Amino acid sequence: MSQTAEANVKGENVIPTSRFRSFFRQLLKNKVAFSAFVFLVVIHVGVFLGPFIWTVNPDAVDPANALASWSAEHPLGTDDLGRDVLSRMLYGGQITLLVGLGSMIFTVLIGGLIGSAAGYFGGWIDTVLMRFTEAMLSIPNFFLALVALTVLGKSPMMVVLVIAFTSWMEIARVVYGETLKWKETEFVEASNAMGSSSMRTLIKHVIPQTIPSIIVASTLGIAWAILTESAISYLGLGIQPPTATWGNMLQNAQQYIWTAPILGVLPGVAITLVVLAYNFLGDGLRDMLDPKHLGK
Alpha carbon of 209 to those of 53, 144, 169, 289: distances in Å? Predict the structure, then answer.
């Protein structure tokens, strides 16, 4: 193998690693964001791998053992139907976190498509899409989600889609602004001069430049989706029992707030900490990916 080929192979192996290390070093400098990142990793690993260790059925009912206190058999006690609270926290956390992730994915797809198309093509496409975005922003999204779930159903997938379709507007505005900035750059003009189609130029050269901003907005969007799902479930209009989520666990626990407060404290604290961690991580990523901070 020639020296040039060896250098290319080495370069392909070194560049991604150095970028990851640089990103990790930047994250380490922001103590709050790094702590939030570590916390989220621990929570996600615990929630998704915990059921392989703690194999108690979260839907197993034992009325004779209802509202039992902590014990070796039930480390976090049982609820009003005698179901193991630890098991339900683990499985409920899976649903809550997956709803947040799924909603974020659909939000990015919808908002990214609308924002990039409006920003790059301009003209009447820009006018129609961005006026539609502004119209959606003027609607109280939470109440729109409640109405949509009442009409369309309350399955987990429907909850994901409703949250996504009522929260894509911020992503669209972020991508729109980034697209307007990058479409005037020299490499985009060079791509057009070489005969590339508008769609190819948009997908290959413009959208990749918006990814840092999308990552930041997506991180904050996951927090919003989790909080929205929890609020909807708390009102009884989200994912329905016996499927556990932290939101409907909180709703079921409200009538036992004085007799068994732990039933409400556990999911409430979990929701609060996860949402705060995603917000702190998003704020830290925004500082890291700000051009004024790059290279420091």
Answer: 42, 32, 19, 12
Instruction: Give the separation between CA 238 and CA 55, rounded to whole angstroms.
Output: 26
Q: What is the CATH number of domain 99-289?
A: 1.10.3720.10
Query: Could you give phi then psi for residue 90, rounded to 5 degrees?
Result: -70, -50
CA distance linking residue 105 with residue 86, whole number of Å: 29
Angle 169-182/123-137 helices, nearest 10 degrees? 150
Count, residues in the chain: 296
For 144-153, how does the pLDDT look when each residue is reduced to its tens digit (9 = 90+)?
888 888 888 8
Calpha distance 239→236 (Å, rounded): 8
Per-residue confidence at 19, pLDDT binned at 50, 70, 90?
Answer: low
Q: What angle do CA 21, 22, 25 make, to 5 degrees?
A: 85
Place of tokens 């997938």: 157
Structural domain boundaries in the chain: 99-289
Residues 34-85: pLDDT tens digits? 999 999 999 999 999 999 999 989 988 888 888 888 888 889 988 888 899 9
According to the model, what pLDDT value does residue 92 have? 92
Rounded to 5 degrees, what angle do the CA atoms 86, 91, 97 make?
Answer: 120
* pTM (two decimals): 0.82
- The whole-angstrom separation of Cα 214 and Cα 203 is 15
Dump pLDDT digits (tens) for 280-294.
998 888 877 765 544
DSSP 28-89: HH-HHHHHHHHHHHHHHHHHHHHHHHS---TT---GGGTT----SSSTT-B-TT--BHHHHH
